[in-house]
Amino acid sequence: MEVNEHNQPRDERRTRSNNLIDQLKTERAEVLVNFCRVAGIESYKNPGQQTDPEECLRDFCQIMVDYLAAGHFGLYQRVVDGNERRQEISELAAELYPEIAKTTQFALDFNDKYEHETEDAFDESFSEDLSRLGEALATRIELEDRLLQALK
User: Fold this and answer.
1) Over the stretch 4-26, which tens digit does the pLDDT of each residue have?
2) Coil, helix or strand for 9?
3) 150 touches 84 (CB < 8 A)
4) What CATH number belongs to 10-151?
5) pTM of this prediction?
6) Which of 27, 41, 91, 145 could covalently link to 67 via disulfide, CB atoms 3.0 to 4.6 Å apart?
7) The dihedral formed by the CA atoms of 145, 83, 97 and 71, expressed in degrees to the nearest 10
C-alpha cells in the first residue's frame, strides 16, 4: 500500500480529495440556485414576491463567499501548496489557477459592493454587475470542471 509523507494511504488521500470535490460541487449548485433567485430581483419590489430582495441578495453573497472559500482553501490551496503528487494535475492547476483567481476577485468585489445593500442597490449598475458576475461564475465553473475531471 502506497503511503504519503504523513503516513496516509493513497486511497485515504483520494477519499479526502473526493470529499472536497463533492463539497465544492454542492456549494456551487447552491450558488447557482441562489444566483437565479437574485437574477429575478427587479429594481422594484414585486407585491407578490415571497422573498425580501435584500435578504435574498445577502443570502446569495454569503453562499457565494462560502463556495469561493471551499474552492480556494479546500481544493486549490492543496494543489498550489504542492500537496498534489500527480504532475499533470499540478501543471493543469498552475495553468488554470490565475484565471480562477480572477473570477474569485470579481466575485469578492461584487460581494463587497452588495452584501449590505438595501433596495437602492437594485439599479441599472446592479443588473450589469450581476450579468458580469454570471459570466465570471460560468468561466470559473468551466475551469473548475477541467481541474475536477483531472482529479478524479
Assistant:
1) 444 456 667 678 778 888 889 99
2) strand
3) no
4) 1.20.120.1370
5) 0.79
6) 27
7) 60
